[in-house]
Every structure is written in C-alpha cells, then in structure tokens.
Amino acid sequence: MSAMEESSPLISDEKDPRREALLTRRLQLTEALAEDPYDLILYLDRAVVHSNLAYPDLAVGDAYRALLLADEAGDESFEYHERARLALEKYTTTPCPDVLHHGSLADGASDVVADGHDPDDKPEAYQQLAFLASVRCYQILSLSLLLCGCLKSALNFCERGISAVPSNKELMEIKGYIEQVARLRLRKKPGEPIDINSLPDRGVVRREIYPWNTYEPDRFSAESLAYLNQNLTTIAPKCEVKVSVLPVLLDGETNTDGYDIIPTCSQLGLFAKEDIAPGEAVLKEYSLLTANNRLKESNCDACGSELPPLSAQPQAVSCPECYDTVFCDEFCFAQAQERYHPAVCDKDVDSIAKDPEAREADQSLYLLLLARLLAMAEHQEVHPLELDDIKYIWGDFVPTHFNDIDLSVDAGPPPEWTLPFSFRYNIEIPLHVLEKMDIDIYATLDRYDVWVLNTAYAKFRGTASARKNPRDGRPDVAAVHPFWCLANHDCNPNVKWEWGGRMTLWARETRVLGNKKGGIKAGEEVLNHYCDVDLPVHDRREWASGSLGGWCMCRRCRDEVAKTEDRNGNGNMMGGAEVEKQ
C-alpha cells in the first residue's frame, strides 16, 4: 500500500451543470488574476466560487490575500499600496461590485470609514471599497474556517470583523454558529463563557487531485515508468518499478477481514529483478527535501544528518553568506547551492517554525518540508508540483466526486475529508515564508496558490519519514525520499530501513512472522513498513492510517483480526488483538 500511487478511482460520467458553471467561472477569475494579481475584488469573487464548490480552505486563502490587499490599499507606506489602489479604482461605490452586495454589509460602514478622517474630508471611493471589502473578507474567513473545523481562527477573524462593524448582522450570526459548535466540542452549557484559547484550531479538508490540476503525471504510463526505472538504476540497481495489485484501503474497522476475496486496486510497487540476499542493501537514496525543527541543533542543512561536535567536523562546510547554515561536506553544500539554498540564503527563514510546542512538532516538520520545496521551486524557476522530488508521489487522493457535498433534500451523510488543515500552517506561515524569500505572493499566485500547497502537504503526509530526538522523544528531523516510498507497506515486511543522511533499505535477515529466512527472490515485491510492526493489529492500523490514508488491509492484519473474532465467537472487532508470539 504505497503512497506513490493511486488506486483506480471510480469516475462518474455524470456532469453537474451547476458545478461545471462554477469551474468555468473559477477559470475566468484565475485568468483575470494573472492579468491583475493586486485586484482584491477578484480574489473575493473567487473565494465565493470556491465556497460554492465546497472548498472552504481555498476560500480562506483567497479571502486572506484579499484582506492583505485591503490593508495595502489603506496604507500608503505599504509595499503594494499603489498597485492595490489602482486596482480598486477600476470599481465604484455606486454601485458596489456584486461581491460586496451581501446582506447588511454596508450598514453603518460609512460612519466607521469616516473615523480618523477630518469630518469635512470624505474618504476616497477606493478607501471606502477597501473597508467594505475587508469586512467581506472577515465574513468569508470566519465562516469558511468554521466549515474547516478551525474554530479558534474562525472566532478570531469574526471578532475582528465585529470590532470594525459592530452592527453587521452576518458576522453576529456567524459568531453564534461558531459558539454553538464550540459548546458542542468543549461540552459547554448554553450561555457558559468560551475561552478562545481553548478552541480547537486543526480541521480537515478535501484531499484530492483538484479538477484544474494539470501537473499530476500518468504514473502508469510507459514514459513515467521509464523515468522511474532509469533513476532507479543507481539508487536500487537490483530493483524495478512495476504495477502492483494491492487491497483497497478502508476507512476504519470492518467485518471483511475474514474474507478470502476482497477489493483490490492497482498501484506502483518496487520489485526485485534478481535475488537479494538477507542483509543486503536494497536501496540507497539521497534527498535534499529535508526539515529540522530545532533551532540550535547541529544538523546538515541539506541532507539532515546529525553533525558531530565541531572538533570532529573536519569536512563540515559553512555557507560564506550565512555562517549559521552548516553542511556535512562540500558535496552537500554544492547540492544545496545548485538546488535550493540561494533562495533562502541570509533571508532569516531559518528561524520560522523552529522549537515548536510538543503538540505542534509534526505540523512544524511538514511546514518546513514545504518551505524547502518552495525554495527549490523558486531557485530552479519551476512550478513546485513539477519538481521530481514530489512529482511522482501519490498523495492518498480521493476522487473529487467522493468529496463533493450533496445539497439535495434526500442527501446522505456528508463526506469525510481527510487532509489536516489549519489557517496558521496551511496559509499564514507559508505566505510569510514566501515574503521572507522576497517573493511577491500576489504575482506568483499560479505557483503558490493554496491548492498547490495542499497538494504538496498531501504528498508529504503519505511519504515523509522522521527521526525522534533521543532526549525528549519528539520528532525533530524529517525527509521525503520519493523512491523509498515506492516500496509498498506490509505488516510482514521483507525489508527494514535506516535513515542517516541516506535512506537505506536492507533485506531482512528473518521475516517478522514465523521467523522465516529473509532475503528477496527475483520477481518478488519489496515490502516496506510505515509503522512499528511489533505492535498489536489495532495499534498498527491506527499508526499506519495517517501514512497510508486508510485502514491497513494486508494479509497479516486481516488474519490476526479474523482469529480474534473466531476466539470471541462473534463478528465484533476486537481492536486490541495480540500479535502472534515470535
């Protein structure tokens, strides 16, 4: 069950006319933004379209960029003030743009806009539009973040909007919705005060290949397989990439574990071309897509290797421009210079998201992997999703129509979205990283739109490996190795792995089950493991589900659960079933 390839999705031939019209409108707005990326009205229009398409996270991204542009238009000292002002001057206040004709948006706005101005000095039309647009941004941000499950950020933006326009009915209604959901989540009684800092701020959004994403390759094509196998000749010379048939992953516990025949899907896998002896290295892979979330830890900036004490670092190299950035040796320094480092050199990016709280250690590592990917893309002048480091990785995507929300009166339950999301880590800090890199976050929308960042996150979450700090057990270094993750997961693996600057797969001396002799015969699939295979079956499935995108359905897991059911004499799932004694 690899994170490198997709199952064969069930594609619906039916077209929803309303959805097709919205997608067409989205395309028009995106093209218009390419012509004038400082037009905040276009961002608001697209935010509404994204909301109607049931992409609340993408609506948040558009509304936030619009809010930043409203601030730019309102302050002459800001970098993009003139461009934001000129874009707004294309519009008038009578009538306002359609996106600003929303409920009671304009109620009381004229009085608030006049604050800070001489009573005889009426604000210019673009200033009034910027103010109204900022209130509309707060409406979209707070409601969309609520739909994403990010209650803390939703309430924060809602209260900022109410502070600007206390009389706005829509914002007051949204605040009521947020508080209602918050009381359910926190088990608070009606009227009981809510501490904003206690609110959850992590949600989930759609994990899919977006309908407009043209960067995903056909992983089964002869061209893709030829590329992968050509690169594999130096990384894993005794292996080849082929199509593998694997069990379909499920969302959770099921009564199908005892079935002999279960649904399968086609994915890519790693296969031995010739016999591989027990203990022999199967794959050795070097990657620059690494991250370290400790500010003062001594790790190579390129490959993530832990560096020895200074006295024992005769080969270590420091960047002459930013002396705090250290590399293993001249090779790592040269690789960094060629592929990413100039984009971040001496730009104060290194301190972002470092030394996080324990509960945010995983999010910080994914963010820092994203930051490295952005630096690679910017320095190499290529779209992030075109980089070979992630291009062929499958992100456990779900077919788009499975994620759609059915608004009909006889609709079933809403879909279960699976991509973790927060305003801070998916939008706010990534844009901050880009700005630190001196990148115009408006003019580069085609490269760094939120859906691009989400797609990268989906690929990371299915493939990144991490090392824990021995002092506190927290993950502090992570990396993505695109060829390592070709090896599909199985809870009875025939390889084990070790990462220390190079990711290495070794053929096991003995198999996990039955103490059978290890090694891999020619034609056999290389079976990796994405969890601790010594755990009980329920714990293994829980652990691996984050990487796999679903409940592990390997032969070992199904057999162990089926035996537990037989012992209990019923069909109930006993999640704590013990693994066979070795």
Automatic annotation (TrEMBL):
Residues 237-531 form the SET domain. GO terms for molecular function: zinc ion binding. Transmembrane segments: none annotated. Signal peptide: none annotated. Gene3D superfamilies: SET domain (2.170.270.10). It holds the Pfam family SET. GO terms for cellular component: nucleus. The keyword Ribonucleoprotein does not apply. Keywords: Metal-binding, Zinc, Zinc-finger. This is SET domain-containing protein.
